[in-house]
Amino acid sequence: MYMNETLSILVVDDSRDLLELLRRQLQDLGMNPYISDNVLEGIEILENTEIDLLITDLNMPKIGGEQLIRYCSEHFSSIPILVITGYPSVNSAINVMKLGALEYLIKPFTADELEDALRSMLGAKTVREEVQTTAVIENFQGIIGSSKKMQHLYNTIQRTKSNRATILVSGESGTGKELVARAIHYSGDFSSAPFVPVNCGAIPDQLLESELFGHLKGSFTGAITNRAGFFQAADGGTLFLDEISNTSLEVQAKLLRAIQEKEVTSLGSTKSQKINVRIVTASNVNLLELIAQGKFREDLYYRLNVISIEIPPLRERENDILALLKYFNLKFSKEQSKSKLKFDRNALSALNKYAWPGNVRELENFVQRLVVMHDDNITINEIPNYMKSKVQLDKSASLSMSLKEVEKDYIQKVLSANNNNKTKAAEILGIDRKTLREKLK
Ligand SMILES: Nc1ncnc2c1ncn2[C@@H]1O[C@H](COP(=O)(O)OP(=O)(O)OP(=O)(O)O)[C@@H](O)[C@H]1O
Ligand SMILES: [Mg+2]
């Protein structure tokens, strides 16, 4: 798993067999399990040990798991709780969620299901604590995230550090392609030479050629002086061609020649010039599809793609969502001279489960907006509905409404169904009118 420190997990279940099984599974995940077959002893362990997460059964002889959940969320509100039970019912699920449990697994479950549940819960917890304490955030050349996939990516970047092989960076929009291109340059051996980024999509095609290769005075209308191109400017360093799919076949042909010959010829010139650059390109469209449509040269593609770096979408980087959330929270609150936002468990859980189609850019903008609009606590209420919809399909997280909210919602429904007749509503709700009046306040 992704965690560096050893986490202590308390498991309470009346089945000795299951306890032993879970003990082994948790150890395999690098965690430190404490087990107990009864609630009283469980509470004792909670009181005397630094527990990071509680796993508990519901139905146990003498004292049931509900009591433990209630105790734990009252006295140790930061400990996430995972409920495991062999008696699935929507009602009991809703009830334990109201008591403070975060996730729900139905027995029997696989080791993978357990790991997934722990992963999302611990992600939430780790960040919740770190947001308050840590000032320095681990990163690779400004890239935040230590998921397995990103670590693999950093390794690839490190391997390219002392050569000039071309690199094609691909990934969905907002995954950080430009950031990766910069990291490639600045972590490499030639980082003191220039890094020259060119957005091929932003430069009109007729201009792109002269911008890339330079031109001599008078080579075309408007060429009033000699001008070096981006290739010459990047000599010794890195030329980053962003949105490479936006180049015409003519420009592609010239690029191919420049890469093959390692030399460029300015427009209007007869002399070519040797250049020594690493070319990094980026694309968020599938170049192979463009090749099939005849819009991209296959030979150029292979020249550009000697090393291929694919940035995974954010939703596939376990735990990075929360690390980035923390990072942007710090960044924007500092920028605006505000104190950091505090995300509660349910809010974090929802954000962690959201698919982030706009990837890191979407997350970045989202946090910026939150920091502007809110002052301290972010609960599930501050999370927009479209982000929660997936969560609501999920059996555990639909239960992200607090007991108060559920109650308020229900009281309002009963009232309006009875034309605001409080006596009738109180009767249906099973409370007296005075209590209802207080609740309405
Ligand atoms: N891992 C990361 N850590 C910190 N910031 C990141 C990370 N990934 C992306 N960002 C930030 O998210 C924003 C989008 O990243 P970037 O512009 O590199 O995306 P892109 O892949 O080039 O997107 P597009 O395909 O739309 O051009 C930038 O502000 C960038 O700094
Ligand atoms: Mg980009």
Give your account of this protein's structure.
There is one protein chain. The protein has 441 residues and is α/β, with parallel strands linked by helices. The protein folds into four domains: 8-133, Rossmann fold (3-Layer(aba) Sandwich), CATH 3.40.50; 148-310, P-loop containing nucleotide triphosphate hydrolases (Rossmann fold, 3-Layer(aba) Sandwich), CATH 3.40.50.300; 318-384, Orthogonal Bundle (Helicase, Ruva Protein, domain 3); 403-440, Orthogonal Bundle (Arc Repressor Mutant, subunit A), CATH 1.10.10. Helix content is 47%, strand content 15%. It is built from 19 helices and 18 strands. It has helices at 16-28, 39-48, 65-75, 90-99, 111-133, 148-159, 177-186, 205-213, 230-233, 249-261, 287-292, 298-304, 320-335, 345-353, 359-373, 385-393, 403-417, 422-429, 433-440, and strands spanning 8-12, 32-36, 53-57, 81-85, 103-106, 139-140, 143-144, 167-170, 195-199, 214-215, 227-228, 238-242, 263-265, 272-274, 278-283, 307-310, 342-343, 377-378. The strands form six sheets. A five-stranded parallel β-sheet has the order 2-1-3-4-5, with helices on both faces. Strands 9-12-15-8-16 form a five-stranded parallel β-sheet. A hairpin with a 2-residue loop joins β6 (139-140) and β7 (143-144). The longest helix has 23 residues, at 111-133. The protein is elongated. Residues 125-136 and 390-399 have low confidence and may be disordered. The protein binds adenosine-5'-triphosphate and magnesium ion. The site of magnesium ion (MG) has 3 residues, from α7. Residues 143-145, 171, 173-179, 284, 324, 360-361, 364 line the site of adenosine-5'-triphosphate.
